[in-house]
Amino acid sequence: MNRRVQLVEASWRKSSYSNGQGGNCIEVADGFRDVVPVRDSKDPQGPALIFGAAAWAAFTNGVKAGHYYR
Fold first, then answer.
1. Each residue of 26-61: pLDDT tens digit?
2. How far is Cα 15 from Cα 26, in angstroms, rounded to an integer?
3. What are the residue boundaries of the DUF397 domain, all occurrences included (predicted)?
4. Residue 40 Cα distances to 14, 24, 43, 47, 48, angstroms
5. Is residue 28 within 8 Å of residue 55, measured between CB atoms?
6. CA dist 49 to 3, 38, 66, Å?
7. Whose C-alpha in 37, 39, 42, 65 is 20 to 30 A from the C-alpha of 55?
8. Rounded to a whole number, what is the distance in angstroms from the first to the last CA of the chain?
9. Residue 10 clears pLDDT 60, i.e. is over it
């Protein structure tokens, strides 16, 4: 399935791990049915990655469980 996701009017929110000092941070756009748009907060006009909602949920659950820490 090839479907375009329109992000022009997306409402972006910063990661809860952001320290507000411009460090390594992502923004996520809420309100999309089956996908989760993600972008670099330091480059808001740059590209966004689009993840399937189930894949994004699996990733964030893994982060919360500590699977991706160094």
1. 999 999 989 999 999 889 899 999 999 999 999 999
2. 6
3. 10-64
4. 9, 8, 5, 8, 8
5. no
6. 14, 5, 23
7. 42
8. 35
9. yes
